[in-house]
Design goal:
The chain is mainly α. 71% of the residues lie in helices and 0% in strands. It has helices at residues 2-5, 10-25, 72-92, 96-109, 114-126, 130-143, 148-160, 164-177, 185-200, 204-219, 228-234, 238-251, 255-268, 272-285, 289-302, 312-322, 328-338, 343-355, 359-372, 376-389, 392-406, 414-421, 423-439, 446-458, 462-475, 480-493, 497-508, 517-530, 534-558, 569-582, 586-600, 607-626, 630-643, 648-661, 665-678, 683-695, 699-712, 716-728, 732-748, 752-763. Helix 18 (343-355) runs antiparallel to helix 19 (359-372) and helix 23 runs antiparallel to helix 24 (446-458). The longest helix has 25 residues, at 534-558. It is globular, with a radius of gyration of 34 Å. The chain starts with a helix and ends in a 19-residue tail after the last helix. Residues 1-40, 768-775 and 777-782 have low confidence and may be disordered.
């Protein structure tokens, strides 16, 4: 049992606690723990209370004085035991939510206790709080892998929910724990999930050994207890599974295993062209360019129309490897003459022409292929040609065609950023677009204008972008809402709040789809608040909430499984609380955040909502500290860490508050170091580490951390801490310099109350030992 793992027999603490618990809660006590009466009463008769003579002592009792003070580690362990015991009582009384919170806090006091971590995992899983269960399972895996079945199940959940790195950690622990046992079907399934997780994380060579075991099991099922049903379940999608294994073997350089896996995928779902492309890659990896060219011809012949095109990463890999081969273009041209309708061959040959510098032929072929079926490959190829040759009118034309096809320039990928970074090119293209706007009779084609507007926006040229966007909105009324939202968000990201407000207001005046109206109001509210128009911002977000709630109600009427928490309403309510906080209406903000938590606390089925509640608690902690209520600030952070034990902001903030109060210093240091490990460049976290070391009297260790923090972010609180450290080390002038900068920064920020205690230190002979008189609010409200 978990209690015995902590060194306390279950019966001992239950027996001690049971009478008082029964008296306090009127909850029946189990037979094992109830006190035994001295005499059994007659049936139907009440039990007589046993008479106990009063105890008289000659001398009054004296408190026990320990021979040595209890260390912080001992105090933490004692607190862990008390919390664990209380959690068990709550669990026995079916008060599972309270029990889970206490298990989580017990684990923070004793993070090496596998018993506490296991109790938290099991109870969280029983409550269907699977994300919480997984987080604590990761902790459990670090200290104990004695339950590989549990770790394996949770690892598979992580893998299937898109968290491959964490999945790998659990699944590897599970596989390691199973090594001592004969392999079974469960092990094979575990290996397959491990391989998949490694591939999802991009670690293909790491996946190969696990997939090799799976292949062995599939080829020799009797050795692994694989029944026909188990084998079928394992290969529910054989083409996909073998294809993934083939990719891992190929990346690991195990070419024969890769060949075998690709062939098995082809048998399960015949795709001659796809197999041929994989054989091209195998030939290239074996260093046989001639064979690769033969296989390339086979790939194109296997799909005479060349539609759909091969995956782009595979395409790029082959082209990169073969474009230096002198035989490549002649063979492709010969094949093209035989298959003029092969779209993939056309695009491939156009790419080969471009890389060989034969730009006229590349341009002509790209255009021919785009006329048949537009594809990002063709647009990117033409943009590369025109960018290098600088025919800006042609570049504007092709960008307009891409916008007409896709509605944006996103298909350009990194090439789009390259264009925006070329100031001369942007000026030329935007200038051409504005000439068309101002000089062309009638309404110009809106697509090139929109392309130029998007390019100007990416380059932060808003004076140029504005008239182009405006004309594009008028010229494409069916896409006006999308264009205004794109325009407005770009302005917000560039902190152009006045312009963003005007654009987003236009969006709210349109007749838009029900799902878009709250989105416009959400961003409009944020932009208005940044302009200091709080009442208007609150009105906008209230209207957004009303629209969102109406939409939720309509959805719930159609779908009985729909819950309001799955809509956008919580995000809008969080925005309302943020607006109040940003406007320094702290009491109202705290009420709004607390209302949000009360309303949605029981919803665990939608992970984004849990992160919103996390943000609300972080904000509430910050607000409590600003109001001078440190215990409340600590309490909200404790609640964050209950659910998110590795949250860096909460780890740092709680560690800092404890350090500032001079309590739990060793635990605070551990927490801050964990936060800093996740965000090593965070100056606030670095300052917290320096401060907790200072508070422990380790000033020589604290100083380098505080100096790094001050160099990265000369925040006045950081400078004040740095001054304290310098003073303690006898470096008086440096201390006064740091304090002076801190006081000046506070004065300039309009916070004289924070500047005053620092100025007092500057005037006095020196500060009292113990450091800063300031309490920093560690978490920035956003």
């Amino acid at each position: 049992m978990a209690g015995r793992a902590l060194g306390v027999p279950d019966s001992a603490w239950l027996a001690a606690a049971a009478p008082q618990v029964a008296a306090d809660t009127k909850t029946p006590v189990s037979k094992e723990t109830a006190p035994i009466p001295s005499q059994k009463p007659a049936p139907g008769q009440p039990q007589a209370r046993e008479h106990v003579d009063p105890l008289f002592l000659e001398d009054p009792p004296q408190p026990l004085v320990p021979a040595r003070p209890r260390s912080e580690a001992e105090t933490d362990r004692l607190e862990a035991l008390a919390l664990f015991s209380c959690a068990r009582l709550h669990e026995l009384r079916d008060e599972d939510a309270q029990a889970l919170r206490l298990y989580q806090r017990a684990f923070r006091c004793d993070p090496q206790s596998a018993a506490i971590a296991r109790a938290a995992v099991m109870l969280a899983a029983r409550l269907e709080r699977y994300s919480v269960a997984v987080r604590y399972a990761l902790k459990l895996a670090e200290i104990d892998a004695s339950d590989p079945e549990l770790l394996g199940r949770l690892g598979m959940i992580l893998s299937q929910t898109g968290q491959p790195a964490q999945a790998i950690a659990l699944l590897e622990k599970a596989a390691q724990g199973r090594r001592a046992h004969p392999p079974t079907a469960m092990d094979v399934h575990l290996w397959l999930e491990l391989g998949r997780a490694c591939c999802l994380a991009g670690r293909y060579p790491q996946a190969a050994p696990w997939f090799a075991r799976v292949v062995e099991a599939l080829e020799h099922p009797n050795r692994f207890g694989l029944t026909a049903a188990a084998r079928k379940a394992l290969l529910s999608n054989p083409d996909e599974t073998y294809g993934l294994m083939g990719e891992a073997f190929l990346q690991a350089g195990q070419l024969e295993k890769a060949r075998h896996a690709f062939e098995q995928a082809h048998r399960a779902s015949p795709q001659g062209a796809h197999l041929a492309w994989q054989q091209v890659r195998l030939a290239l990896r074996s260093g046989n360019a001639g064979q690769a060219l033969d296989r390339l011809e086979e790939a194109f012949r296997a799909s005479p129309t060349g539609d759909p095109l091969p995956p782009e990463p595979l395409w790029s890999e082959v082209l990169r490897a073969l474009r230096q081969e002198s035989a490549l273009i002649p063979r492709l041209e010969k094949l093209r003459a035989q298959q003029p309708q092969n779209l993939a061959l056309g695009y491939f040959l156009a790419d080969a022409y471009r890389h060989a510098g034969r730009l006229d032929q590349a341009e002509s072929l790209y255009r021919a292929c785009l006329a048949r079926k537009p594809h990002p490959l063709g647009y990117r190829g033409l943009v590369e040609i025109y960018r290098a040759g600088k025919p800006h009118d042609k570049l504007l034309e092709v960008l307009g065609q891409l916008v007409a096809q896709d509605g944006s320039l996103e298909a350009l990928g990194e090439l789009g950023k390259t264009l925006a970074d070329d100031k001369a090119l942007v000026q030329a293209v935007v200038g051409l677009a504005r000439q068309r706007l101002n000089g062309q009779a009638g309404r110009p084609d809106p697509n090139p204008l929109l392309a130029a507007a998007l390019l100007a926006a990416e380059a932060k040229r808003w004076d140029d972008a504005e008239p182009l966007f405006d004309e594009a909105v008028r010229g494409k009324p069916n896409r006006a809402a999308d264009l205004l939202l794109t325009w407005g968000l770009g302005l917000i990201l560039d902190e152009q709040y006045a312009r963003a407000t005007a654009v987003l207001r236009r969006g709210t005046e349109l007749q838009v789809a029900p799902e878009l109206a709250p989105v416009f109001l959400f961003y409009l509210a944020g932009s208005l608040e940044m302009l200091g128009k709080t009442d208007e911002a609150l009105a906008a977000v209230r209207r957004a909430i009303e629209l969102s709630q109406a939409r939720d109600a309509a959805e719930a009427a159609k779908n009985k499984d729909f819950r309001p928490a799955l809509g956008e309403t919580p995000r809008l309510e969080l925005r309302r609380a943020w607006i109040l906080s940003h406007a320094r209406r702290y009491r109202e903000a705290a009420q709004a955040y607390e209302e949000l938590i009360r309303k949605y606390e029981g919803e665990y089925g939608w992970p984004p909502l849990r992160h919103m509640l996390r943000d609300a608690r972080l904000a509430l902690s910050n607000l409590a500290v600003l109001e001078g209520d440190r215990p409340a600030g600590e309490r909200w952070l404790e609640e964050v860490l209950d659910e998110f034990p590795d949250d860096p902001s909460a780890l740092n903030d709680l560690g800092y508050l404890w350090a500032d109060a001079g309590k739990h210093l060793a635990r605070a240091e551990r927490m801050i170091r964990r936060a800093l490990k996740q965000e090593p460049n965070n100056a606030a976290f670095r300052d917290s580490l320096g401060w907790v070391l200072f508070r422990q009297g380790r000033v020589n260790e604290a100083l380098p951390e505080l100096e790094k923090a001050a160099a990265a972010e000369p925040d006045p609180t950081v400078l004040d801490h740095l001054g304290d450290a310098y003073w303690q080390l006898g470096r008086r002038e440096e201390a006064r310099s740091a304090w002076g900068r801190a006081a000046k920064a506070y004065r300039q920020a309009g916070e004289p109350a924070k500047a005053a205690p620092i100025e007092k230190k500057l005037q006095a002979p020196g500060p009292a030992a113990g450091g800063s008189t300031l309490l920093r609010s560690p978490h920035k409200v956003t």
